[in-house]
Design goal:
The complex is a heterodimer of chains A (585) and B (292).
Chain A lengths: L2 H21 L4 E6 L3 E3 L3 E10 L13 H6 E3 L3 E12 L2 E16 L3 E5 L2 E4 L2 E4 L3 E6 L23 E7 L3 E3 L3 E10 L6 E5 L6 E5 L6 E5 L2 E15 L3 E5 L3 E4 L3 E4 L3 E6 L16 E9 L3 E2 L5 E11 L15 E3 L3 E6 L6 E12 L3 E5 L3 E6 L4 E6 L3 E5 L4 H6 L4 H8 L24 H28 L3 H23 L6 H17 L8 H10 L4 H19 L6 H22 L1
Helix pairs in contact in A: 6-7, 7-8, 7-9, 7-10, 9-10
Chain B lengths: L1 H39 L3 H14 L5 H14 L2 H11 L8 H25 L9 H10 L1 H25 L3 H34 L2 E4 L3 E5 L8 E6 L3 E8 L2 E5 L5 E5 L3 E3 L18 H7 L1
Antiparallel strand pairs in B: 1-4, 1-7, 2-3, 4-5, 5-6
The chains are: A alpha+beta (585), B alpha+beta (292).
């Protein structure tokens, strides 16, 4: 036991002692132990306590009795210092002086041992209480239960104990034996756990469902029974097989043990045993057969299902050799098992065969039988399914011709033939070529479409919103036309071809631009008067008129002049154009 | 002296470059010839080894080698690898001829029927046969749908410009122009949307084939995880997720489970899946010569 645990028990014991000490007049002696049942070789911690209901005077040290040393190996004892305590309960103050010695005792031999001690109190001798410790043999030396079939204990004294039992003492190889382990608790303990589970060497074991917790009365005590383990055991060899002991741990310090169980396992009788009989076929079984379709065509698959049902180790059942049908291709069966829930292991095991008929006609699926050993009647029995018939359609005459074919040909008629491998001189080399329109290009192109549409529509809207209006556009048109005229005049200034016509048209355009729409079609004098009304000063009008006349004279008369004259005329015309342009602006 | 050495070294490089290619090419052809010769003797194990050697030596995909390899595995009863190589043979990236394509589809159908029978008898799961919906999804993923959507988009841009520039003011032509715009816009949106969805789904969940006879699909990546179901070799699955050494796959029906990474192989991988255990393609004489 660990040191903190011991100090905890010391305090508990002290609190328990206080009221008694308050009543007592002299010394008190007491023995405490952390366990009352141990195995040989295990350690039990025993506390020897001496207390006096006073803070004055000395308390003698407890002495280990000689009987303890005979049955136990005594380890290093601890404690021994006298401790003074004061406690107030309901206003009443009690004081005590306590001396405690804790000794680890290792059990040396089997038996029931009483532990007590005495201390001198003046002329008297004070005796302690007596604690009984039962030392059990270690597991390998433990005696097995005499009758393991006793399901409920009768003679019990412990508050907490384990109880194990089986439903029979004798069984055949492969027969089910049900093992039960229950925990009986007279009072509710905080922490009870199965520390060591029983061993099932020589058995196949299957877990069974656990029943609910229930209450029962044994003697005068009421116990809560917690079912711990339920196992179906199937012995695998004849002889004596042992189910090992288990260990219960209570509140992490006390232990209880169950006894091992010995079972007599009988071999299966040789008399009447079928040839090749499997030892797993023990129980009671039936077999049935069914087919999912009774009318098929050659090459059409159908399923034949054999179902074995009953009590016994159904998952290990050996169904024996399945019947062979010559004109049918059968695949390995699909096996499914459904376990029944209950104390007896059993259920159903189905073998579904996929079959493909190869020839037309009536197909008979023969009955299948298998043998099992019934432990109740102690004899062998046979389960047999019914025969089934399947009609395979098609032309029966075709069979006669095919009957001479060998099995391989018949099989290839049903199986799909494979095209032959390709043979060639040189393997053609493919230059790895990726498609031009890969995912990335496609995505970019698809995203570009709405982008272009958006840009186009947005640009159009922006042009309409922020672009030039009609007046500005017409001004720009005028400026462009004027620029064209000037360029034509400049181009013709050296040669003189069409020069005066271009200058005249330029001046006429400028005059019309200044005069506005009402000037269109007016003769020159009327146009000049209109310009006067429009605010063009007299000098400008005069210069305009002079230049126009010079141009007329050059165009229609002989007063063309030389290149210098044309240069001067152009300069004058440009000056008039600038002057009229300013006037208009 | 130094110039002479340089010239000699350059000549050696040129000679190596010229000579090495035919040697490698011959090795592929020799391995292929050995495979076809073994196949003619019905020695399918040897044939598979030789075709695996040819496949390993050839840097690019070959429909013929994949087809022969798949056929050899089909004869050996390895339906998973047979399906895998026959599917690769009929993939456009391998450049199958019409004959190879037809033979691949025929053998693939035969292998598929055997795999379905095996699955029925063993209880393993296999993908359902292709439905009209699968064919439709494949058709949507085809390149011509990509071109159609892209050309429709570009056409829409041009038609919109023409409509706004010239035809809007002409009531007679404006109606036809608007109808053309609507048709082009619908083609662009529907064909493009469906193609994009299909390509995205295929790249996010690539197709793979289950290799081997059967593979246990587990609830998580690890041998200690419980088996959810068993996949039939040759079943077509989609790869959803990866974990070191494991892949999470989904059957078309929706069943998902984790399988060892090497038990499935992607169809679109450039290099073929490693050969079956027991086959030693590298051990063939042709392979050794080619490597040398």
């Amino acid at each position: 036991m660990s040191a903190p645990l011991r100090s905890w028990w010391w305090l508990i014991g002290l609190l328990w002692l206080m009221p008694a000490l308050a009543q007592a007049k002299g010394l008190q002696a007491m023995v405490e132990t952390d366990d009352t049942q141990v195995l040989v070789g295990d350690v039990v911690t025993v506390d020897f306590v001496v207390a006096k209901p006073s803070l004055r005077g000395s308390v003698p040290s407890p002495e280990l009795p000689q009987s303890v040393a005979e049955a136990f190996d005594v380890g290093q004892c601890s404690g021994g210092r006298a401790m003074r305590t004061t406690q107030s309960i309901n206003g009443a103050v009690t004081t005590a002086t306590v001396r405690r010695v804790s000794c680890p005792l290792t059990a040396r031999k089997v038996g029931t041992f009483k532990i007590a001690f005495t201390v001198p109190d003046g002329k008297k001798t004070v005796a302690s209480n007596t604690v009984t410790v039962e030392v059990l043999a270690s597991e390998e030396d433990r005696a097995p239960l005499e009758d393991p079939t006793v399901e409920v204990p009768t003679d019990v004294t412990e508050d907490v104990f384990l109880w194990v039992s089986t439903d029979k003492k004798r069984a055949y190889v492969g027969e089910q034996v049900t093992f039960r382990l229950d925990v009986y608790e007279a009072s509710r303990f905080l922490d009870v756990s199965l520390r060591t589970s029983p061993t099932f060497e020589g058995f196949l074991s299957e877990e069974l469902p656990l029943p609910e917790v229930y209450l029962t009365t044994l003697g005068e005590k009421q116990y809560r029974v917690r079912p711990g383990i339920r196992r179906a055991l199937f012995a695998q060899r004849a002889g004596t097989s042992t189910i090992g002991a288990s260990e219960l741990l209570i509140s992490r310090r006390k232990r209880r043990y169950s006894a091992p169980i010995e079972l007599e396992i009988l071999p299966l009788p040789a008399e009447g045993q079928p040839a090749g009989f499997s030892a797993n076929n023990v129980g009671r079984f039936q077999i049935s057969a069914k087919v999912d379709r009774t009318d098929v065509q050659p090459g059409d698959p159908f399923t034949v299902t054999y179902t074995i049902a009953g009590e016994g180790n159904i998952e290990l059942i050996d169904p024996g050799q399945w019947p062979e049908i010559p004109t049918v291709r059968a695949y390995d069966p699909k096996v499914t098992t459904e376990r029944s829930r209950g104390e007896t292991v059993g259920g159903t095991r189905s073998y579904a065969f996929l079959m493909i008929p190869e020839r037309p006609g009536t197909l008979t699926i023969p009955a299948h039988e298998f043998h099992y050993f019934d432990p109740e009647s102690e004899s062998y029995a046979t389960a047999k399914s019914q025969a089934l018939e399947v009609v395979v359609g098609g032309d029966p005459n075709a069979i006669i011709r095919d009957e001479d074919d060998d099995a391989e040909q018949a099989r290839s008629a049903v199986e799909d033939p494979l095209a032959p491998v390709v043979s060639m001189e040189a393997v053609p080399r493919q230059v790895p070529r990726e498609r031009w329109l890969d995912a990335e290009r496609w995505t970019m192109g698809m995203l570009a479409v709405p982008l272009l549409v958006g840009l186009g529509l947005g640009g159009g809207w922006a042009w309409r919103r922020f672009g030039p209006d009609d007046v500005a556009r017409s001004r720009a048109k005028v400026r462009a036309r004027r620029r064209e005229r000037i360029e034509a005049a400049q181009a013709a200034v050296e040669t003189g071809d069409g020069f005066h016509g271009a200058v005249s048209a330029l001046l006429q355009d400028v005059a019309l631009d200044v005069a506005g729409p009402e000037g269109t079609g007016l003769p020159r004098p009327e146009l000049l008067r209109l310009l006067a009304r429009k605010g063009v000063d007299a000098d400008e009008r005069r210069r305009l008129e002079t230049l126009l006349e010079q141009c007329d004279a050059a165009r229609f008369g002989a007063a063309g002049g030389g290149a210098d004259d044309r240069h001067m005329l152009l300069d004058d015309a440009l000056a008039v154009v600038r002057g009229l342009g300013k006037g208009v602006a | 002296m130094s110039a002479l050495r340089t010239v000699v070294v350059a000549l050696c490089f040129v000679a190596l470059a010229v000579v090495s290619r035919p040697v490698r090419a011959d090795a592929v052809d020799d391995a292929f010839a050995q495979g076809t010769e073994a196949a003619s003797r019905n020695d399918w194990e040897r044939a598979a080894e030789s075709f695996e050697s040819a496949s390993a030596l050839l840097p690019q995909r070959s429909a013929v080698i994949s087809y022969n390899l798949g056929t050899a595995y089909a004869h050996l009863g390895d339906l998973g690898r047979a399906t895998y190589h026959l599917r690769r043979a009929s993939d456009w990236r391998a450049g199958p001829t019409a004959e190879v394509l037809e033979a691949s589809r025929s053998n693939l159908a035969a292998v598929r029927r055997r795999a379905e029978l095996d699955a029925t008898s063993s209880g393993a799961m296999i993908d359902r046969p292709e439905t009209t919906w699968d064919l439709l999804v494949d058709a949507i993923r085809a390149p011509w749908v990509a071109w159609l959507s892209l050309v429709s988009g570009v056409g829409f841009c041009i038609a919109l410009y023409v409509h706004r520039r010239w035809l809007r003011a002409q009531p007679r032509r404006a109606g036809a122009s608007r109808a053309l715009l609507i048709v082009l816009a619908l083609l662009y949106a529907i064909a493009g949307g469906l193609h994009g969805w299909s390509v995205r789904a295929a790249s996010a969940q690539p197709e793979a084939i289950v290799l081997g006879a059967s593979v246990d699909a587990r609830e998580g990546p690890g041998q200690h995880r419980s088996v959810e179901f068993t996949l039939q070799g040759g079943a077509q699955v989609r790869v959803l997720d990866r974990s070191p050494g494991w892949q999470r796959v989904k059957l078309p029906g929706g069943l998902t489970g984790w399988v060892p990474e090497t038990s499935v192989a992607r169809i679109d991988a450039v290099r073929a899946a490693p050969p079956a255990t027991g086959l030693r393609p590298g051990a063939s004489t042709v392979g050794k010569r080619g490597d040398a």
